[in-house]
Specification:
Elements (H helix, E strand, L loop, with lengths): L1 H13 L1 H21 L14 H12 L9 E7 L9 H14 L5 E4 L2 H4 L8 E8 L8 H15 L4 E6 L11 H17 L2 H29 L3 H31 L4 H28 L7 H32 L17 H9 L5 H11 L1 H16 L7 E2 L11 H13 L7 E6 L6 H13 L4 E4 L3 E2 L5 E8 L6 H21 L2 E5 L1 H35 L3 H26 L4 H4 L7 E2 L2 H29 L4 H28 L7 H33 L8 H6 L20 H10 L1
Parallel strand pairs: 5-11
Antiparallel strand pairs: 1-3, 1-4, 2-3, 6-9, 6-10, 7-9, 8-9
Helix pairs in contact: 1-2, 1-10, 1-11, 2-8, 2-11, 4-6, 7-8, 7-22, 8-9, 8-11, 9-10, 9-11, 9-22, 10-11, 10-18, 10-21, 13-22, 13-23, 14-19, 14-23, 16-17, 18-19, 18-21, 19-21, 19-23, 21-22, 21-23, 22-23
Length: about 750
């Protein structure tokens, strides 16, 4: 592989005009597609195989035309202090609002609070429910504008009016912190390379790659039913890995120049060696993201596939566009150890200082770890273990309007309904009774209603609504606890448990659905899929790393280190988002259960990213060991060449992920924090401390591989051993510079 990538790097360097033209054309094509594509909203949410989904599908079959998947809006009214909703002026304002709400062409029905008796006991809060023919994503802008106009007109009469439900989609915003993350990345690159040109290359290529990936997702969003968060997650991951992959290749290019190689050859060698690590690091990320499909939740599968596509683009750009841009940069990209004149460097003095400088920080740290491996190992493991303790209290759920910022009308409507009707009113349970096989359908439905009323925690049960055939009924159940609470989950399980007895007695099937039940089923499905997913992803990556490192213990150590870092990251997420530690600093307005997909998503993404640092750092050690150095010295060599760059890459990735903590979307905020803290733990504790400590303790045993397995697996030559044949080829550095000047 190293030889093939070496030739690819040299080809891209020589044919830089052609390579740059291809990528710019792809960016323009994706941009045009995104600009002409319809705006995407939230993707349709389905959980195949769950009871909640089966009940939802049954409703669509037995209640045709009822728009079971249509959007709803709860328009909540609150009377001014000292007044009641029944006061003449307030009642008149509400009745006028109800009349206007029913005028839209997409409206199915509107409930009148005074006729439906949807007024709080103290008479100060009421709500009207608006049902629409289509989902919230498909609602016309004129429909949502009319809804907001009615609310504003009613506010002008003196009432407090807020709108809940899914008719108004609150689009996520990332805020200025995303830009700050990119600025931090730029500063780190300048410090790392000592050159503005060299620092700009990774940023430029990463932005082009993310631009192509996100624009493509936007262009296909409507056709593939991709949610608005899909492009944000793809941007988050694509930007981080795009900068890192380009960073490693540019860094290796400068190291090759420092050894006196001509520029085209240096570009080829950078792609042949660091590029090989980029390919395998990218493969681990892609495996982790595509592996999300084993969960069998369409939304998660699409998110993973879209993000994986952006990673593939980042790898291809690193292998082709980076060497092409290095060709354009020419002598403006200095060999390692030199700074540009703009940043205080000058050729002779700077080089003399670089030649006589003392060992760098990476070298000194590696020597310390090699001398005290057991102490470093114990401190690292105990420290991460302590941070992981809160993970034992992990509670899973899905965010609802109660987790929205208090500045949104959805959150204020949620709070008003909780105040007026109890916390469970925001998460009603829909009990569906399929009595088609029952001899007495109405008797069976009555039995279900009476049974549910007696369940602890149930506040009220509405009269059943039958379909035209009279063989299926819907019953709305209001619990006394908020939707995301453990108490509500227990009520769902109690209803389902009672349904088994009812089925045996009446031949009627009892199913529980609704958004709250869907969230509970989703969390359960994620829990059930976590271990199979972990086994699949870690297993495939383990086999891949055996091929890369030609070792058994190194991949095993890499996997165990990852598990430690991801548990510590989950512990930190629980401490902030569930326990409320530092919640004000992170902008968390409402603590509660951790998002259901967080553990499995972190396992996938963090595993892929963790293997990036493992591959980049340990391949340098492997390269030194293969070329004859002792195991301890190989560790020091790997850190001397790789620690500075891996540190820079980790800081950049942390900055990019942390930039998304400013998002208004709770899911994006939580993922941004979780990934940032996971990269911090994995890069600086696991890869920089635990990994060299374990390798120092293992010595030569770290690189042991059974002879039969050594013969069986292919030799991908990540170390670049095959490139030694090219050592004597090609002109010297000065000749190449003169050739560049003529181009």
């Amino acid at each position: 592989m190293a030889t093939f990538l070496y030739k690819l790097g040299r080809l891209a360097f020589r044919r830089r005009h052609f390579v740059a033209l291809i990528w710019v054309a792809l960016l323009a094509l994706a941009g045009v597609g995104a600009a002409s594509a319809p705006t995407a909203g939230d993707s349709s949410f389905s959980i195949p195989g769950t009871e909640a989904q089966k009940a939802f599908d049954l409703l669509e079959e037995r209640f045709p035309g009822s728009s079971a998947d249509g959007a709803t809006a709860r328009v909540v009214f609150q009377a001014p202090d000292g007044q009641k909703m029944a006061d003449a002026a307030n009642k008149s304002a509400v009745e006028k609002a109800v009349s206007e709400l029913g005028d839209g062409s997409e409206v199915v029905s509107v409930t009148d609070p005074f006729k439906a008796k949807s007024i709080s006991e103290d008479g100060t809060i009421a709500y009207a429910q608006v049902s629409y023919k289509v989902s919230g994503v498909e609602l016309k802008e004129a429909t949502t504008d009319a809804l907001e106009k009615v609310a504003q007109d009613t506010r002008d009469t003196g009432l407090t009016v807020e709108i809940g439900g899914d008719a108004l989609q609150a689009m996520p915003e990332t805020g200025s912190t995303e830009v700050i993350g990119i600025v931090v990345a730029a500063v780190v690159l300048v410090i790392t390379f000592g050159s503005l040109i060299a620092a700009g290359l990774p940023l430029l290529t990463a932005l082009i790659g993310v631009g192509i990936g996100v624009s493509t997702i936007t262009a296909l969003a409507k056709a593939l039913d991709l949610g608005s968060t899909t492009s944000i997650l793809a941007m988050m991951i694509g930007l981080a890995v795009g900068i890192d992959y380009a960073l490693f290749i540019v860094s290796r290019y400068r190291a090759e120049l420092a050894e006196g190689r001509q520029r085209e050859d240096a570009a080829g060698r950078a792609v042949g060696t660091a590029g090989s690590a980029v390919v395998f690091a990218g493969l681990t990320v892609v495996i982790a993201l595509v592996g999300l499909s084993v969960v069998n939740i369409p939304m998660l599968t699409k998110m993973g596939a879209a993000a994986a596509g952006t990673v593939v683009i980042a790898v291809l750009i690193a292998l082709t566009m980076v060497p092409a841009l290095l060709g354009y940069a020419g002598r403006k990209v200095q060999p390692a150890g030199r700074k540009s004149r703009l940043l205080g460097g000058n050729s002779k003095k700077a080089q003399a200082a670089a030649d006589g400088e003392r060992p760098n920080m990476g070298t000194r740290w590696a020597r310390f770890v090699v001398r005290r491996p057991l102490t470093v190992l114990l401190l690292g493991v105990v420290g991460l273990g302590a941070v992981a303790i809160p993970a034992a209290s992990l509670e899973l759920g899905l965010p609802d309007d109660g987790s929205q910022p208090t500045s949104t009308t959805q959150r204020r409507a949620y709070d008003l309904l909780s105040e007026g009707f109890g916390p469970g009113f925001n998460g009603p349970l829909m009990v569906v009774v399929d009595a088609k096989s029952s001899d007495d359908p109405k008797g069976a439905v009555t039995t279900v209603s009476d049974t549910v009323k007696d369940i602890k925690g149930v506040v009220s049960v509405t009269p059943a609504t039958y379909n035209k055939a009279g063989d299926t009924a819907m019953i709305s159940v209001i619990p006394d606890s908020k939707p995301s609470s453990t108490e509500t989950e227990n009520i769902v399980h109690a209803i389902r448990g009672a349904g088994g007895t009812i089925t045996s007695d009446t031949d009627a099937k009892v199913l529980v659905t609704g958004s709250t039940a869907m969230n509970i089923d989703f969390s359960q499905k994620m829990n059930d899929a976590l271990l199979p997913y972990l086994a699949l992803v870690v297993g495939l990556a383990f086999l891949l790393l055996i091929v890369v490192f030609r070792s058994i213990l190194v991949p095993l150590k890499a996997a165990l280190g990852f598990l430690l870092s991801v548990l510590a990251a989950l512990g930190a997420v629980v401490a902030v988002f569930q326990w409320g530690w530092l919640s004000g600093l992170m902008g968390v307005e409402e603590t509660g259960p951790i998002m259901s997909m967080m553990p499995i998503f972190m396992v996938g993404v963090v595993f892929g990213l963790a293997m990036d640092y493992e591959v980049f750092l340990v391949t340098r050690m492997r390269e030194a060991y293969v070329h004859g150095e002792r195991p301890g010295q190989a560790i020091v060599t790997g850190f001397r060449h790789g620690a500075r760059v891996v540190t820079a890459a980790a800081v950049i990735m942390i900055a990019v992920f942390a930039g998304f903590i400013g998002s208004s979307e709770s899911m994006i905020k939580m993922i941004g924090f979780g990934l940032a803290i996971a990269v911090f733990f994995d890069a600086f504790v696991v890869r920089m401390a635990i990994v060299p400590a374990v390798l120092a303790l293992l010595g030569k045993r770290a690189w042991w591989l059974p002879k039969w397995l050594d013969r069986a697996i292919p030799n991908v030559d990540v170390e670049g051993e095959g490139l030694r044949a090219h050592d004597a080829d090609g002109p010297k550095d000065g000749d190449e510079d003169r050739a560049l000047a003529r181009v």
